Amino acid sequence: MPEPRTDTPAHQMWGGRFAGGPSEALDALNRSLGVDHRLWPQDVTASKAWVQALGRVGVLTVPEEAQLLEGLDRVAERLADGAAMGAADEDVHTLVERLLYDEIGALAGKLHTGRSRNDQVATDLRLWTLDALRQLDADIALLGATLVGRAREGLNLLLPGYTHGQRAQPVRWGYVLLAHAWPLVRDRQRLADARRRVAELPLGSGALAGSGFPVDRVLLKEALGFRTVSANALDATGDRDFVAEVLFAIVLLGTHLSRLGAELILYASAEFGFVKLADAYSTGSSLLPQKKNPDVFELARAKSARLLGDLVALLATLKGLPAGYSKDLQEDKALLFDAFDTMGLLLPAVTGAVATLTVDRERMLGALDASLRATDLADLLVEAGVPFRESHGLVGRLVGEAERAGVPLDQVPAAIAAGIHPALGAVVTQLGSWEDSVEGRATPGGASRKSVEDQIEQLRRAFTPDWRP
């Protein structure tokens, strides 16, 4: 068994009632600086706001307030220069306080008046999340705008649309790309909605029962850019709903990227050959010289699973906790940071791969076959007065005859078609071009030119950087 430590760290936020310091094993387990060090800008910002709040209620004199603020500015400079690297402090809050002692001496001890690490870490993490959401939203908007731009280029390209992995009806390539752009709009909406609940100020909650000093939390909210003030201190210090909600939105975004990747992996295969990835967004094989692998999109599929793991780990952590802060919550940051870091790598790569892929028009057209006109035939029979359920069955029989004869659907002999139904032979001759087939789906949201153009315009606006749902 490791021996308890008898030495006390140079700086610690607690320990007066303990006979000695923590064991090395506990210290190693308990220390979170390796993860939470990236919160230092938020910790300094929130600490400066807290200093000003303490000054307003007379806890600090004007000179003390000025000295603390100047000291925190110098701490920020040191941290920006890498002072956190290799530091042995328990966490980022301890680090900031220790560096402040270095800068201004004993006056640093007044900084923590009326404040707990419980409301401090909750505030820092919310501030960090608000900043991270802004960058994530910009990255999503860029991918969305890229898909819309490529959709505009693909307005005149026709290919089979698929359900169940089977050819179904002809559609426009731009329409397919827009089907992957619309989920990104919903992702931006979800993240914007979550942001409202992230922007709730915990500072001033103390450890669980509120601060012992009458600080103005409304002014703190305004100073730090929060939307509202938390209603219950016990809830606020233990609330990580905002982490779970943001993680869920990121997981769903990852799922959408995975689905886009899965489709483009298929279309980039030799069997389809609809698209070709740029060399800059492909990799090769260590053994097979001819290989060009779509690793960007394969990693998009895998990263979605990793993101799901982050969410499940957080929810499993939260489900057994009572109200208020428990040290279990220390794990939230590693999960949240991992999700944002993953998206920070994934979104630019997927965007670049989509922006640079090339399309093979002839392969797309070559994949269109007459069986995709089956629904058109059924619709024509309906126009001739045949109820749809009956026309569906009649065209199904015609498909069977075409398969048995080994001919395309539109080349079944007229006598055979007429033998199935008198109107069937006539409607087969009324089938127009592939463009006519696509234009027949002219309802809003459909694959017709007008519908796709309308969607492109809607999405163009939805992916502007300043768009708000």
What does this structure look like?
The chain contains 19 helices and six strands. The protein has 469 residues and is mostly helical. It folds into three domains: 24-113, Fumarase C, Chain B, domain 1, CATH 1.10.275.10; 121-366, Fumarase C, Chain A, domain 2 (Up-down Bundle); 370-431, Ribonucleotide Reductase Protein R1, domain 1 (Orthogonal Bundle). A two-stranded antiparallel ribbon has the order 1-2. Helix 8 links the parallel strand 3 and strand 4 (228-229). Helix 14 (374-383) packs across helix 15. The two termini are 57 Å apart. Residues 1-8 have low confidence and may be disordered.
Topology record:
Blueprint: H1 24-30, H2 33-36, H3 40-56, H4 62-80, H5 92-104, H6 117-153, E1 158-163, E2 166-172, H7 173-198, E3 200-201, H8 217-224, E4 228-229, H9 233-238, H10 241-268, E5 275-276, H11 295-318, H12 332-356, E6 358-359, H13 361-366, H14 374-383, H15 388-405, H16 414-420, H17 422-428, H18 434-439, H19 449-462
Parallel strand pairs: 3-4
Antiparallel strand pairs: 1-2, 5-6
Helix pairs in contact: 3-4, 3-6, 3-8, 4-5, 6-7, 6-12, 6-19, 7-10, 7-19, 10-11, 10-12, 11-12, 14-15, 16-17
Give a brief outline of the structure.
The protein has 469 residues and is mostly helical. The protein has helices at residues 24-30, 33-36, 40-56, 62-80, 92-104, 117-153, 173-198, 217-224, 233-238, 241-268, 295-318, 332-356, 361-366, 374-383, 388-405, 414-420, 422-428, 434-439, 449-462, and strands at residues 158-163, 166-172, 200-201, 228-229, 275-276, 358-359.
